[in-house]
Amino acid sequence: ILEPITVQGVGVNGRGVLINTVAGTAIVNNLVLADDATFGGSTRLEIRGTPSLGDYTLTVEHTGIGTPGGGYNAVRFVGAGSWLDHTLKDANVVQGTLAFHNAYLGQTDGTITVTHKEGAADVTTLQLMKTIDYNIATHLYKSLEFTGGRLYNYRGPYTLHGSVTLNDMVTEIFVNADGGYGTNLIITDAVTGDGGITKTGTGIVAFLGDNSYTGTTTVSAGNLQYGATDQNTGSPGSGDFVLNGGNLRFVTDQAFTLGEVSGTTGTINYGLASGILLPNLAVTVGSNSYDVVTNVYKGAVILAADTGLGSTVGATTIYGGDAHNGRVVLTNDITVGETFSLTARYDPYLYAPHIVNESGSNTLAGNLTLVTGGTHATLQSDAGLLTVAGNITGTIGGKYLNLQGEGDAVVTGSILRHSDPANLLHVHKLGTGTWTLAGAANTYNGNTVVGGGTLALGADAVISDSPLIDVKTDATFDVSAVTGGFTLAGTQTLMGNGTVVGNVALAGTLGVQFDSDADTIDLLT
């Protein structure tokens, strides 16, 4: 229809004042709404040209069935060759699909409402798609309200500005694969309401608002993300999460408490492998039952329960290198059965801790493995008592295991060298606290440096494979608890200006290094 057409009302039996039921596409150019109107039909109805829609409400009750996409049946606004700008204020989608193909959403003060229709053969859908301006974000301004239904981004990057309300039911958010079109969806304003979300499609949806919706969020495919690499906002609502094949990512620089997470496939990522640091990201987690892998790149993951990192099926990696400073923080007298991989760090984060005992008596029951990527891996006890019950194993290349902090800790597991003895693992004690090595099977083969506080050995502890024990000024090496006294192997050297507490027997030749200007040296007390 090339000439302007003016419509209003709901049509015969409420089926629509403008409908298309024949095969093919009906195109209406220069549509004029004289009042509220309902559009129906079962095949494609396109609105093009220069529509004049006033302040009226368009209701879509379309019976066309099929997955939204390039050739689907729907009521859709289409810009041919350039973006279609129009004056649509409010729209109600009660059945079928309302689509915007190279088209804006109309007046910025209006609302598009999408409502699931019981018994309908297809999901009520609001779709976005473009075939021009690929890889350039299109900004759309409109409030959206969903009671079930689906928000479907078929192609291209879109940023939605305006409130988003989820009522009572679960709303599906589908974001297609990038496909070379930069397809993603960003929602800038807060998502509110008592409804939930199911994320489908292999693309990314990112929430930048401080959300308060209370329903469950299920991630079935792709990435569901809070925050963005160039933003410091975005937090989840208070509801729970289910991982069912997709990835949950936190890229926000805020503190929040995460609801319970369950599921068996996907990943949880705190921060990203690339992007800015997130110094204020602090996520408090309680009991979770998920079996998936946890990746900690940035910020702090604060554990308030034994299973804060899920079951022991999915391991946790805390990343290092020269770009990551993420850490796991222990509180609340918990026992964590998780196995950890600690990617070693470079400057400027050499001594940034991978795991921190913030308060209470907490236990790491799983094994810890150092992973190549940098040179230093760090465990820190700020207060209370940290017990490391699992073994700590070195990796390829010379690595430093830093044991630091003002609090106390005991390693009841063993510190083990890499299977290739050419890869040295050094142990450095830093800070004012006391760390006790109680493992009877330590095989680490690098130097032991006591740089601050006290490094103590338990009754059955051995460190005979460490060639050099260097006790720095104002530091203490305490061997008083070793059964039968501590024996210095013939291949070992004990040196430094610090204090050694307890009896030391020599299995080889005594060598004394004296670098002090004082008249005496306090080496053995």
Can you walk me through this structure?
The protein is 0% helix and 44% strand. It has a 22-stranded parallel beta sheet that branches. Strands 25-27-29-31-34-37-40-43-45-47-50 form an eleven-stranded parallel beta sheet, with no helix packed on it. Mean pLDDT is 92; it is low at 518-525. The chain has 525 residues and is mainly β. The chain has no helices and 52 strands. The radius of gyration is 31 Å and the shape is elongated.
Topology record:
Layout: E1 5-9, E2 18-20, E3 25-29, E4 31-41, E5 44-48, E6 57-61, E7 75-78, E8 90-95, E9 97-101, E10 111-115, E11 125-129, E12 138-141, E13 143-147, E14 150-155, E15 157-161, E16 164-166, E17 170-175, E18 184-187, E19 191-193, E20 196-200, E21 204-207, E22 217-219, E23 223-227, E24 241-251, E25 255-258, E26 261-270, E27 282-285, E28 293-296, E29 300-303, E30 316-318, E31 327-330, E32 335-336, E33 340-343, E34 355-357, E35 361-364, E36 368-371, E37 376-381, E38 385-388, E39 392-393, E40 399-404, E41 408-411, E42 415-416, E43 425-429, E44 434-437, E45 448-450, E46 454-457, E47 468-471, E48 476-478, E49 486-488, E50 493-496, E51 499-501, E52 504-506
Parallel strand pairs: 1-4, 2-4, 3-5, 4-6, 5-7, 6-8, 7-9, 8-10, 9-11, 10-13, 11-14, 12-15, 13-16, 14-17, 15-18, 16-19, 17-20, 18-21, 20-22, 21-23, 22-24, 23-24, 24-26, 25-27, 26-28, 27-29, 28-30, 29-31, 30-33, 31-34, 32-35, 33-36, 34-37, 35-38, 36-39, 37-40, 38-41, 39-42, 40-43, 41-44, ...
